[in-house]
Amino acid sequence: MRGEQAVGGRVQVYWEGEDEWFDGVVAAYSAERGYYVQSAAESARAASPRDSVVDNNEADAENYDEAEEENEDEQEAAKHQAGEADEAEREATPVPEQEDLTQNERAALSSTKQKKIARRARAFMRSSAAFFRDEDTLREMRQELRHEKRTLANQLQTLTMQLAEKQQVSAALKGELQQLKTSAALANVMRQVPRSVSFSGSPSGTLKSLSKPKTAVQWGERVLDQKLENQCLADDLLVLKTAVQEKQLAIQRKQKQRDEMNTKLARVPRRHLCTLVDVQVEIARLLEEKRALESQSPPHSSRIEMETLATSEAGTATKTALQNELASLEITAERYKEELRQWALKIDCEKARLAPLETRLASLQEELRRFENSQVLLRSVFLRLVPDVRDGCVPSEAALAAFQTLAPLDRPTLSVEDMIIRLQARGIVSSDIANQSQRFSFAQFVDAFDCLFKS
Hints:
Keywords: Coiled coil. Residues 38-114 are annotated as: Disordered. Residues 135-183, 240-374 form a coiled coil. The chain is of the alpha+beta class. It folds into 5 domains: 3-133, no CATH class; 137-194; 217-268; 301-358; 375-453, Orthogonal Bundle (Recoverin, domain 1). It has helices spanning 58-90, 95-127, 135-192, 195-198, 203-210, 216-267, 276-296, 301-374, 376-384, 396-405, 416-426, 442-453; strands at 10-15, 20-30, 34-38, 43-45, 394-395, 439-440. It is flat, with a radius of gyration of 59 Å.
């Protein structure tokens, strides 16, 4: 509803000074002043076509309105008198002319009245401290307030969730702290109470273990005893595991020694190897020869015995010398094996250190290869030479100077003449480059760089 139809309707007035909404009733409507809203507590003045919003300076606006109304009444009275005089004068004129003048005067009066109304509204808006809002503005303000409310609600929910998470973390930390305190107390009790006293096979301990606790204190003592016993059993289990690991290591060492002895035996020449059966067979053969010799020449038995004794003594000496030499060789072989083992460990350590370095080198080479293929460096150098906007080329002198700057350190430095000769040989630049100013595009720049430093 608008205009006179809104009189008697209920509206809501937003008071900016107090930042609140008030319920009111439209009491009157004026085309010049707008709506006049009243409430049970106080009255508010609005100037928008729909709803009204008034601040705390309403008294000044009302005083100004009263003064304006008095001035307008006086002006309208004077104009009314002047109009009556004009009508009296126009009665003597003919009827058509009177009708024409009346229409012109009506148009002039309506335009003057509209100008005065606009001036009054502008003066009121300029001098009054009231703020006027239409329905769309109020709706936008309401939407903004609702959006702000939702934002604050989301922030509140986020903060609440963060607080809950912090509380959960705090509870977990408190529980962990309590467990650590319990573990520390158990450790102190275990250090203070000997195991022989706590877990001995005495009758008192047996009766205590068989008797069922009746009170909470006894249950606590039973739980503490069980925890201590479990801890001691865990320590014993750890000791047993350590002993098993040591035995396994000893077995591995024995197996390693066996493998080494087999390796040593494999390196001994085949002709020097003999078994117990071979020795027994050789002894039996020698005994048969001895008996044969004794039967053939009985007078010479003493001489044969002496020769046999000398031969056996010589064999014993040779055997002793060979055993000593074999022992020294075994010691030398053990020393060399220990050195070889140390070198193998060092090689393994170096390989372990070298593996990540090789991986890193491969990744860096791959990155360098991608970087070279992308031609980012050449593009940046080419752009630093400020190519021409029209054709995107740079002068040859600047390009050759840039090539001298980009020369790799592991290659000899090339002069400008050498560069020109190489580029002419490849056909990248013309033969009369010294006479005319040749320009390089980016593709020619890349080809020239490859020709000079990658070929």
